Amino acid sequence: MTGRTTPEPTVPPPEMTLKIPDWENETNGQPQTNTVQVDPQKAAKNLEKVESLVEQMEISNKTNAAIVNGDVIGVLQRQPNDKPTKDINICYSSNQNMINVVESNQAGYPWSVKIPREAFNKSRQENNGSAFVGVLRFKNMGNKDKTYTVLGNECYGITMGANISNLTDNIDMTIKKKDNLVGNVSCVSWDGKGELNWTTFGCETIIEDKTIKCSCSHLTFFAVLMSLPGNPSSDLETLTLISSIGCGISIFFLSIGLFMHFLLRKAKSNQATKILMNMFVALFLLNISFLSNESVANTGDNAACVFIALLLHYSMLASFTWFFIQALHMYLWLIRQNVTITNYMRKITVLGWVCAAPIVVAIASGGEYEAVTLNTTSGKIARMCWTTNPYIHYIVNIGYYALVFIFTTGIFIMIVTKVLQARKIKAVDGKRKTFRKQLMMVLSLFLLFGLTWSVAFFSYGPMRITSYYIFTVLNSLQGFFLFLYYYHIHNDVAGQFSDDPENTDSNTVIAQSSITAVENIYH
Description:
CATH architecture of the largest domain: Up-down Bundle
Distance between the termini: 85 Å
Oligomer: single chain
Number of strands: 18
C-alpha cells in the first residue's frame, strides 16, 4: 500500500526527572528556538555539571533519569558498580520530545547513539568504579564558519565524567536522513574548550540510503554539518588532484636538481647554492611524504601513520627554516656586510635540520599524530595522517611560519628597495628589459623566501577558496620553479647570484659592495 510510513518508535519513560543545579542560561534569558543562538561556552559548562547528578541517582537507587532544563533535554544513565558493564543504546523520540535508553536500537529514530562497553570501562577507571553517561540536546548552538549549516540546528553533548578517546570500539551515532538534503554531509565534533570550532577529527562519516552514521573514537559535542556549495570540502578532490600532479612534477625536477648538484657540480658549489640544495632536500621530503600520506593512512597501521605524519610535519617546518636561512644569508650578504662567521655553513646546516626536530618529537610523544578522515563530494572517504589539534595548528604551524614570514618579508622589502636604487644609478638598455629583470628577481625572491605559503596560512573571507587554489598551484609546483631558478643561476649568470665561490673556508667573510651585488642578480 503506497503512502504508508512506518511510525516513529517511542522511548520508555524515565525512572526520575532531574534538573542540573546552577544552570547557566545559554540562551541569555530567551526561549531556546531555532532563531536564538545558544552560547557554546555556557552549554559546555552545563554539560560538565551532569556529573553532579549521579550522586542524587545513587541516593535514590535509580539508574535512569531524564534531564530537563527549559528547552534543553537529555538523559543520564548509570551503570551500578555491582553489575557488569554493557553497551547501551540511547535514542531521541521527536513525538515524545524525549531522550532515553532503549533495549535495542530500532530503525526510525531521528537520532540515536550506541555507547560501547569499552567507554564505560574507561569511565570506571577514572571515576573510582562509577560508570555513567549523560546526554544533552541543544538547539541552534551554531557554527563558526558560515559556509556550513548544522543539520536540523541540533547538536548533542555527551559526557562520561572522564577522558574518553582513542576507542577501538567507536561510539556510533545514527541520524535519520531527510529527503531534501542538498550539500555535503560531515560528522563533526567540538571539545567544549575555547571558541566553537567544529572539526572532523576522530569521526568518520558513513552515508547510507536513509541514514547518516557518525563513528567517533571520542566523546564531546557532536553535530552534522551541511556544507554549502563552494566550500573547501566540495573542492577537496580537485585540490587533491592538483596537489598530486604538482607534487609529482616537483619531485621529478627536484631530483634532477639534486642529481646535477651532487654528481656534477658539487665541487664548484658556493654557499648560496649549498643553502638552495638543502632547501631542495627539505621540499623533496615534503612532497614525498605528502604524496604517500593517504596510502599509509589507508593501511590502518598506526605506527606507520604516526611516522609519515611526523615526517610530513618535520619536512614542512624544515622547509620554513630553510626559507628563513635563505633570507638570513641574503641579509648578511647584501644588507649587513663585513661580517665574519666561524664555521658558517656548518652552523646554518645544523640550524636548518635540527630546529624542527624537538617540536615534532614532542607532538608525536603527546599522541597528536593520527589518521584524520576527510569527506569528498563523491561520498568517498579520504584519510590522511596528520593532526587537527587547533593549538598545534595555530601555535606551531601558523606561529612558526608567521615568524619566518615577518623576517623574510622584511628582507624581501630591503632587497627590492636596493634593486630599485641600483637601477636608478646604472642606466639600462630599455624599460621593457628592465621591468622583465626586476619581475624575475621579485618572483625568484618570493619562491626563495617561501612567501607563497602565506596565501594559505592567512586566507580568510570570501577569497578563501580562490586563495586555496592559488596556494595549491604555486606550492605544489614550487620544486619545479626552484629548479628553473637553479638552472638559470648556473647557466646564465654563472653563479653570480651568491657569495664568492672561493670563500668556503671555516671563516666566512661577507664584505661586498651591495649595489654591485644587487646588480649581479640579473646582470
